[in-house]
Amino acid sequence: MLFAHVLLSVGWVGLSATSLVLAVVTFGQSNTAIRRGVFEFVELLSVVLGRPAAIGALVTGLVLSFGTKWGLFRYYWVLIKFVLLIVMVAAAIVLTPGFVADGIAHAGQPGSAELATAQWGIVLLPIGHLVGLVVSTLLSVYKPGGRIRK
C-alpha cells in the first residue's frame, strides 16, 4: 500500500509539472491550433491520468492512515496531509474542466479576458498541486507537530 501511495503521488507530481509546462506554452503563443491543442492535451492528462492518480493517492493515504500506527486523527501532520489532498483533489475535479473548456472555446481569441482566465487557471492549478505535494512530502518525511489531543 505504501508503494502504491508513493507511486501515485510521484506520478501526480509529474503530471502537475507536465501540465504546468504545457500551460505556460499557451502564453505568447500566436498559433490558435497550438493553444487549443495544449488545452485539449491538459484535459486528457487531467481526466485520464491526473484524476485517477489524485484519487488513488487519497484512497491509499486513507488506507495507510487507518492501517498504521499514525492513524488519521492521531497526529497533526497526517491530518494536514489529508486536508491538503482533499483540497487538491477537489480543485482538480471541480476547476480544471471549466478552465480547459474556456481555453478551448476561446483559443482563437488572443487577448480576451476568457482566454487569459483559462490560461492563468491551468497555470495556477498545477502550481498549487506542486506546492501541496511538496508540503505533503515534507510532512511525511519530518512528521512535525506531535499528537492530536483527545
Automatic annotation (TrEMBL):
Origin superkingdom: Bacteria
Key words, A-Z: Membrane, Transmembrane, Transmembrane helix
Transmembrane regions listed in the UniProt entry: 47-66, 78-100, 120-142
Membrane recorded as keyword: yes
Protein name as catalogued: DUF2269 family protein
Organism phylogeny: Bacteria, Bacillati, Actinomycetota, Actinomycetes, Pseudonocardiales
